[in-house]
Design goal:
By secondary structure, the chain is mainly α. Helices cover 54% and strands 0% of the residues.
């Protein structure tokens, strides 16, 4: 016998079907909608207009408080017993580059011109130094030294926030100040500066240095010499290192390697081939990578100075040729900066060129601008200390001419 008579039509089991129309069986039996596995009804009422489609608390409990995406600089938390990945190592960034160095040069030129124009105009209008002519004022140490000090401070005050915003890095970190190297090896850097200064003074006795130089005009009175000594020991070394070893040296090294890589990509022929061959000529490369754990902002600290001290920015991986090229050009520029003071005499300029090479080596070896600044300050300070003792405390300047 067929089972068709025992199986009710499909329409008879559906609520509201025509087979049940008009009968009391049109009301669905809740038992028909029970889930056999759980015993719960699978029927859910439709949400009212405007109501949330998810039950309350689902979003709050399933997503972290920052919206499911880790906050910038925050490391993933441990889940399921798995340890969080280690923080990313600091990346070498090619800053400052030549464009940044040109910006600093323009900023320094404009600031020096504006400051000197303002100060000398005030001095001329008020007869600050008597009836001296403009030419005499240009050689007056009591006016020149304070003007240079003001100019240097203004340049640093303007460059600090400008380049910090441009690099998205604290300014000391961007120029690789790295004061931690000085805290660890301060006595070594002081000793290098003192020894370098003494060697230069001894060597000067055998070089054809003129008896008189334009810089001698700064040593006419004890007051002038005190001004020069304070400025040349405390302020000038740090500012000169910032310009030459903080900006010019790294930007030239990065430019050399960039040109070499560009020449290699262009293929054989011409300057590009020569540069690429030079960049590969000497191995191994000098790798400058001081210890660091995270990029600025990734450590969770928003204190730029604290981050610069604890997490110095590593130097790019410059080739040896790039370091030699940049050190030579930087030292030439450093010597030419003092050419007017030395009367363009080749012997003292060659001495300053050598001193600059040593400062470049210190900056590159310890990846620290503070280290080269300390060596520079110790070098100048030793010179003024020797003059102090030779002239009985700057009282008998006539002994300098002997």
């Amino acid at each position: 016998m067929s089972n068709d008579s025992e199986t009710p039509p499909r329409s008879a089991s559906l609520p509201g079907s025509s087979a049940n129309a008009g009968s009391d069986d049109s009301v669905p039996d809740p038992a028909d909608h029970l889930d056999p596995s759980t015993g719960e009804s699978w029927v859910r009422p439709l949400p009212e207009p405007g109501a949330d489609l998810l039950p309350p608390g689902v979003l709050e409990t399933s997503l972290p408080p920052w919206g499911g995406i880790p906050a910038f600089g925050e490391q993933p938390k441990e889940e399921s017993g798995l340890p969080a990945p280690p923080p990313r190592a600091a990346r070498a960034r090619p800053i400052p580059n030549l464009g940044h160095t040109l910006l600093l040069l323009v900023l320094a030129a404009v600031t020096l011109f504006a400051t000197e124009l303002l100060v000398f105009s005030i001095a001329m209008a008020t007869h600050m130094f008597g009836q001296e002519s403009s030419e005499q004022l240009l050689r007056e140490p009591r006016l020149l030294i304070p003007t240079m000090a003001i100019s240097y401070l203004v340049i640093v005050a303007l460059a600090w926030p400008f380049f910090s915003n441009l690099w998205q890095e604290p300014f000391p970190r961007g120029v690789r100040w790295n004061a931690a190297a000085v805290r660890r090896r301060g006595s070594l850097f002081l000793g290098v500066g003192v020894a370098l200064s003494i060697c230069v003074q001894l060597l000067s006795n055998f070089l054809p240095i003129p008896k008189t130089l334009p810089i001698d005009n700064f040593f006419r009175t004890p007051a002038d010499l005190w001004l020069v000594a304070i400025f040349g020991t405390l302020l000038a070394p740090a500012c000169e290192e910032l310009a030459f070893r903080g900006f010019l040296l790294p930007s030239l090294a990065s430019a050399w390697d960039w040109m070499a890589r560009s020449g290699s990509r262009r293929g054989n022929g011409g300057l590009g081939r020569d540069l690429s061959q030079l960049a590969r000529a000497i191995q191994p490369r000098w790798t400058a990578r001081p210890a660091g754990t995270a990029l600025y902002g990734e450590s969770g600290s928003h204190d730029g100075l604290t981050d610069a001290r604890r997490n110095p920015l590593p130097d790019p991986k410059w080739s040896t040729n790039a370091l030699i090229f940049s050190s030579i050009l930087t030292s030439i520029g450093f010597a030419l900066l003092h050419a007017d003071q030395l009367g363009h005499s080749m012997a003292p300029l060659a001495v300053l060129f050598t001193v600059s090479l040593v400062l470049c080596a210190v900056r590159l070896k310890w990846h620290s601008l503070a280290a080269s600044a300390l060596v520079h300050a110790a070098y100048n300070g030793t010179i003024f200390t020797l003059i102090f003792y030779a002239t009985d405390g700057f009282r008998h300047l006539d002994k300098l001419a002997r």
